[in-house]
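REQUEST FORM: STRUCTURE PREDICTION
Request ID: SP-0412
Submitted by: Lab K.M.
Chain count: 1
Length (residues): 359
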Amino acid sequence: MTGTPEVVELDLTFRAVDAGASVHHEVPEIFAAAWPAYRSWFLREGEAARPSYATGAFQLRRHMPELVDTYESLVAAVGGGDLEARFLSHWCPPPLLTACSLAVWDRDRHLLVRNYDYPPLLCDTTALASRWAGTRVVAMADCVWGAVDGVNEHGLAVAIAFGGRPVVGTGFGIGLVVRYVLQVARDVREALEVLARVPVQLAYNVALTDAAGGGAIAMVGPDRPMTVMAGRTAGNRQGVTEWPEHAVFCATEEREAALATVAADPATTPDSLVASFLAPPLYREPATTLWGTVYTAAYDCDARTLDLCWPDDAWRLSLTDFVPGTRTRRTAVAVPPAAYLPAPSADDLVPVHPGLLIA
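STATUS: Completed
RESULT:
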């Protein structure tokens, strides 16, 4: 990427949508609005670079069989096209990177707090409630039916952060894995069992909290077995810095140090923990970096609520009493000089399987 990013003001609208038990309700409209942009991204390396429908469907049946009926219904609901079906399988999509910060809290309440650091113009900004396959879930949507964070009716909350390792493998995009965990797991133990067996395309840190007091941050990747971090906070590394350019670009070491300090402070409360995510260095002003903080999510596993937070506002959504609506924010954001946002230092990525480099 060449040139200097410019700062523009835009209206960023967050939506709370309840799809209920059927993918035929609300989801086709969400898909239709998002598909032109997602199609362009999905085909950026050419159609031949993406796996076939048969491959994606086979891998879903093999690794996430409980999602197959929902997947097939979703494909039918959006028109049943081959390309759409390949996209919705989330099998080996074009790789995407984020920044993000994570914290698990279990002192007196059971919380999961995260910052979603990503180009605001590329964010779904949809809190999607559903009861697919019998499990009530509210999650921030990713690629229509995937999720970057969420909580289910059992009180299990999940959120992700890129793991900061330059490897690309054969596996699912993490968003559908998060969806799967929320659909089938009831607690952290069951979630870890899922994460240990489902193949993922990139390295990610996955934060988990449940209403029974369980908590963990799992480190997953395409080239090594899942392991669990010793601590309850994470940025964009898996123990050590393996991609220095990315670490500098997203200031992960600074954010990790700040998280560790807050977590270790006996004076920290749930409210002050959330407040720390709304201030530097955890909060990254969208006008000053291409990967700014789009929102802070605070999941209360006991109450089954999601608080979407910004430095000047907050929006509470309840899983048990979900109220659809919108929240529009006037936001200054840095945008790249080109119409796309390539990964920083993308040439440094090391593919586990040839041909899956980030373009």
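NOTES: The chain has one domain: 6-351.
Reviewed by: T.R.
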